[in-house]
Design goal:
The chain is an alpha/beta fold. β3, α2 and β4 form a beta-alpha-beta unit. The structure holds NADPH dihydro-nicotinamide-adenine-dinucleotide phosphate. The site of NADPH dihydro-nicotinamide-adenine-dinucleotide phosphate has 19 residues, from α4.
Length: 314
């Protein structure tokens, strides 16, 4: 296997990784990005992106991903399609990255590995994704203005997103499998006292129903009474957590939710390792915030590399 020495490796080709690649390459860094699938990440699942700043008409997530990719390539970023097998740190503070196509030694790595959202795993969920089943209220809530919406989950995401949806409709129902929310007290209390939201604790979802085109209702289970019943809904928003992909570098400091802890410049607890987008601990996860993370990390990494090399050459 040949050993290569680029300036920086970016792992993950979602928005955060693509933005980091563009900024790093444009700053003159020899930039290599590794992506296991197609570039774009979760963007590829968004049909109509209405809130990306600077565009007065909705964008297709696929198109935007393609534009991000072309832009990064134009500035010289090199794309590799395949997984990373291992990362080791050497005594000089450099990282040895083994991929499917070779071994690379770099002073800095940007982790943009994202988080895998949890799914309910009930009948109808897969069939109606993008047709009433959603995992992003800011993205899809406006399509159901004034309609009847079900929110599933009991953490900060479910409560925060239910509050967002309550501004769009007065018919929001939140179901949670426990008898109290896991969310922070203040957020949970706002949900419980919101006139537009009905909370049903001790409830689970059996199945999501539809007419072949879109969601029409849900089969619910009331744990307290052991009763199953069906109810009409136009949309189901699932917020039952996500599993950040952090296993490539096991020694990084994580928060309680398992997300990588960073400072405002995206530095992690290990020198030369930066984390961006959905894998890091951030309270607001949006396409625009991921793009911003990437830009900040590329800039910070460039400064870090200059310092490391300056020290090395003294
Ligand atoms: P969490 O893991 O905190 O909560 C997930 C919720 O989903 C829990 O209530 C859990 O139930 C429930 N759940 C899990 N699996 C299932 C299932 N199979 N069926 C039904 N319910 C299920 O995830 P969040 O996305 O809410 O939050 C992730 C992180 O992001 C947290 O650290 C959170 O604090 C942070 N965050 C902070 C915000 C803020 O500060 N404004 C906003 C959004 C997120 P149970 O309680 O029974 O385990």
């Amino acid at each position: 296997m040949s050993e290569k020495q680029p300036d920086i490796i970016i792992i993950g080709g979602g928005v955060a990784g693509l933005s980091a690649a563009q900024y790093a390459a444009r700053a003159g860094l020899n930039t290599h990005l590794f992506e296991e699938m197609a570039p774009g990440g979760l963007l590829l699942t968004i049909d109509n992106l209405e809130n990306y700043p600077g565009f007065d008409k909705p964008l297709s997530g696929f198109e935007l991903a393609d534009n991000f990719t072309k832009q990064a390539e134009q500035f010289g970023a090199v794309f590799h399609y395949g997984g990373i097998k291992g990362i080791e740190r050497n005594d000089e503070g450099y990282y040895r990255v083994t991929s499917e196509d070779g071994v690379y030694t770099v002073p800095a790595i940007i982790l943009a590995t994202g988080a895998k959202r949890r799914e309910l795993g009930v009948p109808g969920e897969g069939e109606y994704q993008g047709r009433g089943v959603s995992y992003c209220a800011t993205c899809d809530g406006p399509f159901f203005k004034g309609k009847r919406m079900l929110v599933v989950g009991g953490g900060d995401s479910a409560c925060t997103e239910a509050l967002y949806l309550s501004k769009l409709s007065d018919q929001i129902v939140v179901v949670h499998r426990k008898d109290r929310f896991r969310a922070q007290r203040s957020i949970a209390s706002n949900v419980e006292h919101n006139d537009h939201i009905e909370v049903r604790f001790m409830h689970t979802v059996n199945a999501i129903k539809g007419n072949g085109k879109q969601v029409t209702g849900v089969s619910l289970h009331d744990i307290a009474t052991n009763r199953d019943y069906e109810e009409e809904f136009d949309a189901v928003f699932v917020f039952i957590g996500a599993d950040p992909r952090v296993d490539l570098i096991p020694d990084l400091e994580l928060d309680e939710g398992g997300y990588i802890v960073t400072n405002e410049l995206m530095h992690t607890s290990m020198p030369g390792i930066f984390a961006v987008g959905d894998v890091r601990n951030t309270p607001f996860r949006q396409v625009v915030t991921s793009a911003s993370d990437g830009a900040v990390a590329a800039h910070a990494a460039s400064e870090y590399i200059d310092e490391l090399r300056g020290q090395a050459y003294v």
